[in-house]
Amino acid sequence: MSQKRPNILFLMSDEHRPDVTGYEGNRVVRTPVLDRLAEKGVVFQNAYTPSPICVPARQCMMSGQLPKTCGCEGWVDLQAGYRTFAREFSRYAYNTTCAGKLHHQGQDQMQGWRTRIAPDAEISDRYVEDKIEVEFERYRKPPNTGKWSNQREVEEARAVEGPYQKFDKRVLQASLDYLERYFADPVYHRPQSHRPLLFKFSLLQPHYPFFTSKEQFDYYYERVPIFYEEPCDHPVLSKSQQGEPVNASEEAVRRATAAYYGMISTIDDYFGQVLDQLENLGEDLDDWIIVYTSDHGDMMGEHGIWEKTRFYEGSARVPLIISWPRRFEGGRVVHENVNLCDLFATLCDLAGLDIPEGLDSRSLVPLMRGDTSGWYNETVSQMGKNHVMIKHDDLKYQYYGEEVPEVLFDLKRDPGEWKNVAEDSEYAEVMERFRRRLAELGHGPEAYRHYKNAGYG
């Protein structure tokens, strides 16, 4: 192959619900960089996380497989040496570099990345080799330490520079320095490498705690719309991530929302600085594949709940933009259901790499061209071992185990997800189809015993 493969910039945030962007019509939030990226790229309006919580969502995205396929049915890492798209691209001589958050907790901290800068590397207790359990028991965390409750997260929202803000600043500076050295070493005055680059710029914000700069906080405080709603009566969908109710004041919810919006504007600015750096180094961004996404959303008090882990749109839907102006017309909006798992096959297809077998990953390239023929309009998400969401067209089915009522939302009629129509006679045949698909995916009372993958191939 004589032609160099394309460079790829993979921008990622944490806990960004996609309706808090200008390009989705939010008139309050300031996201000029993402808005320009959407104008030049393809927006996937119905992109979903494979799991609405950080660690499994990121493992599934990297492996191109659903939680049940890759074994990440909970707060667990991929097995050491597992195939990821970073590992796959490294095989093709790509320089694969990640800056910032990966949230890998196992012993395979690289997961195929050849270089990590400003990392969040930390091995969880569960992966310590030959662990002496009795010693770990001696130092078990006492009550009221560690993670705040959802209630306190909201009440503590304010204008302050917290640890996540400091982390993201380090990631930004390290990334700007790395790119300068890579493309125009200021000492040797030459590029560091002639190979193609896959560079992932991954930030912690807008993940809570709800902290942001005073400038951002003051701008948004009086402007933000807030959710101040009551939970439904479903035994799962009525619960915030930690289970307890949140009874914060409207003023506290406003502070938390202002901080959340402020963090989104901050990461938008950081993305812009990375893009500007590349252009200042002589790179033509029309020749780059640029991806933006997040691992999941945040409920922000919608339906009376906070954080993620639920299959409501605010938690399970994610922003997804793919831009390559040299190859694809900008401004296109794709309405088909897609998944973060689909990025593995898509990146391979765009870069001209062979797509490995056994993935729960479908190339989005035909959709980027406007070709929807043959697309199986399904997306799947899973939380733990027993909570499963299947969305087909505008219908979103949810299974929570045999003792919990099933849920079906018809998003065409009910975009706010207020009415559970699972028991309506009009949807009886639809429910049977979803139950059969649930079994094919290895879940439910009739689960296929020999499940291998989603069967998209």
Q: State mean pLDDT (0 to 100 scale).
A: 94
Cα gyration radius (Å): 22 Å
Shape: globular
**The CATH homology group name:** Alkaline Phosphatase, subunit A
Report the top-level CATH class. Alpha Beta
Distance between the termini: 27 Å
Amount of helix: 25-40%
In total, the number of domains comes to 1
Number of continuous helical runs: 13
The computed structural class is alpha/beta
CATH topology: Alkaline Phosphatase, subunit A
Topology as a string of helices (H) and strands (E): EHEHHHEEHHEHEEHHEHEEEHHEEEEH
Assembly state: single chain
| Low-pLDDT residue spans | none
Kindly estimate the percentage of residues that lie in beta strands according to DSSP: 15-25%
CATH architecture: 3-Layer(aba) Sandwich
The strand count comes to 15
Described by strand count, sense and barrel closure, the largest sheet is: 9 strands, mixed
Written description of the protein model:
- The strands form three sheets. Strands 1, 2, 3, 4, 6, 8, 9, 10 and 11 form a nine-stranded mixed β-sheet that branches. This protein has a four-stranded antiparallel β-sheet with strand order 12-13-14-15, covered by helices on one side.
- By secondary structure, it is an alpha/beta fold.
- It has a single domain, classed as Alkaline Phosphatase, subunit A, CATH 3.40.720.
- Helix content is 29%, strand content 16%.
- The two termini are 27 Å apart.
- The mean pLDDT is 94.
